[in-house]
Amino acid sequence: MNVEIIKAEMKREEDRSFIGRTVFTLENHNSPYEITFFSKRGTEWDYSLSFAGEPGSEEQFLETDSLLENDDDVYNLLLDAALDTQELTEEVEKE
User: Which domain of life is it from (predicted)?
Assistant: First the structure.
């Protein structure tokens, strides 16, 4: 299944936890999705899936949630997109 990443971000909070999100679309799905990531230490991640805009098909939403649960490659692609933006932000702050 083709995944298109629209935008992503990751921030480190004052308590050193991470919170990020990736907005994406899936091939043959009508609505974009947003996955929000949270981790206390940056090693184990919790996530929450929602529609990025107007609500769409509940059937497609449940299919997407199942995809994230069962396909590590798709999940890691979305998480890595958010993590990559956090690394760039830290490099800019160091300069």
Answer: Bacteria
